[in-house]
Amino acid sequence: MSRDRADRLTILGLESSCDDTAAAVLRETDAGGAKILSNIVLGQSDLHAAFGGVVPEIAARAHAEKLDLAVEAALNDAGVSLPAIDAVAVTAGPGLIGGVMAGVMLAKGLVAATGTPLIGVNHLAGHALTPRLTDGLQFPYLILLVSGGHCQFLLVEGADRFTRLGGTIDDAPGEAFDKVAKLLGLGQPGGPLVEAAAREGDPARFNLPRPLLDRPGCDLSFSGLKTALLRARDTLVTRQGGLFAQDRADLCASFQVAMADVLAEKTRRALTLAAVPVLAVAGGVAANRLLRAALERVAQDADARFLAPPLPLCTDNAAMIAWAGLERLRQGARDDMSLAARPRWPLDTTSAPMLGAGKKGAKA
Ligand code: KG4
Ligand code: ZN
User: Fold this and answer.
1) What is the pTM of this model?
2) Is the CATH number of domain 5-136+313-359 3.30.420.40?
3) 18 C-alpha to center of ligand 1: Å?
């Protein structure tokens, strides 16, 4: 073969399951990890802003338009030519089907042209395996995925061995943050705005519910919390004729602390169940400082290490897909042209499917 290969495997990753069009190039290191040579994420927030949520059809078109550009940019940034790629890893689900199909089709085109192996990656596995890329974490560990579309506790014992210990039965936490921001007229994405408003607020002013804490296990629910906030808002509006800035701040602070309390307690239970020495967290909501501090305390109390990958690798990206693909490749996994895009694809096929459907589509 006359390809300008490096000694170590070089993997191209593609991600298009939600509203980020992403491509990344990773190269294996001698230590068994990988170096991120490039990590391109082309967001679509502007396209969806007017609709207050991700519009699947718009997302799919934008992915189809931008994926090849993302790949080109990723190869350029990495200083790698397409023939030097040893495998193409692509998110094959779960997610919005149009976007996933756009990614899978492009990946198939690339492997047809280059003759390299194709690996279909589960998006959630990408998130769940990220701490191994960023910190060389060894199995087993517990990870909490908290984003706009995901919320689950996973015990990770191998690159394809995941046990779901619990998850949300309705909204994902980021989705709840976004809805609260909408109810209070704060703009989108809601998480950072709610967090900023909460900084000026009194978390004890509104006694919002802590859903499902009275039930055993690690499942979570956030839609009741959001509804309670809506009622508190409406009561104020009826009484005062509107909301003052302090009311908004107090509502945000009360909501945020309820969210953190619930996630902390459920994480405590998940850590006990998992009986592992590490708690990792991934997803956009992991940026929330109050939540992070609460989770860190839980880990400390359980004598477990707490680990949160850098934020750009916590949120949707293609480096995590390339890494998960590399892990699967090392296990001998390969896909062929029959690889299908899957809107639903539970990581843990033995646990009962989750009921919930996030704003970004039912996940797993
Ligand atoms: O992982 P991510 O970028 O995308 C997916 O959902 O896949 O997560 C985005 C979510 C949004 O719902 C956003 O409001 C939330 O993460 N988020 C936050 C914060 N920053 C982002 N939620 C709470 N506090 C934050 N600081
Ligand atoms: Zn994600």
Assistant:
1) 0.92
2) yes
3) 13
**CA distances in angstroms from 30 to 85, 139, 290, 303, listed in the order given:** 18, 19, 38, 31
Every domain of the chain and the residues it spans = 5-136+313-359, 141-309
């239970």: which residue's tokens?
269
pLDDT 10s digit of each residue in the chain, 364 long?
434 445 799 999 999 999 899 999 999 998 999 999 999 999 888 888 777 778 899 999 999 999 999 999 999 999 999 999 999 999 999 999 999 999 999 999 999 999 999 999 999 999 999 999 999 999 999 999 999 988 999 999 999 999 999 999 999 999 999 999 999 999 888 999 999 999 999 999 999 999 999 999 999 999 999 999 999 999 999 999 999 999 999 999 999 999 999 999 999 999 999 999 999 999 889 999 999 999 999 999 999 999 999 999 999 999 999 999 999 999 999 999 999 999 999 888 777 666 543 434 434 4
Ligand positioned closest to the Cα atom of 127 = 2
- 275 contacts: CB under 8 Å, gap ≥ 6: none
Sheet of 305-307, strands arranged across: 161-167, 151-158, 141-146, 278-282, 305-307
Choose which residue among 177, 222, 291 to substitute to test ligand 1 binding: the one with the highest number of ligand atoms within 8 A of its C-beta: 177
CA–CA separation, 142 and 122 (whole Å): 18
5-136+313-359 and 141-309 share one CATH topology? yes
Q: Which protein residues have their CB within 5 A of the ion that is ligand 2?
A: 316
Ligand 1 atom nearest to CA at 189: 14
Are 157 and 343 within 8 A, CB to CB?
Answer: no
- Residue 339 backbone class (left: φ over 0; alpha: ψ -120 to 50; beta: rest): beta
Which amino acid is residue 116, in one-letter code?
T
Ligand 1 neighbours (beta carbon < 6 A): 18, 147-149, 174-175, 177-178, 189-192, 195, 283-285, 287-288, 315-316, 360
What CATH code would you report for 141-309? 3.30.420.40
**Ligand 1 centroid – CA 330 distance (Å):** 32
Among residues 69, 77, 72, the alpha carbon closest in space to that of 36 is found at 77
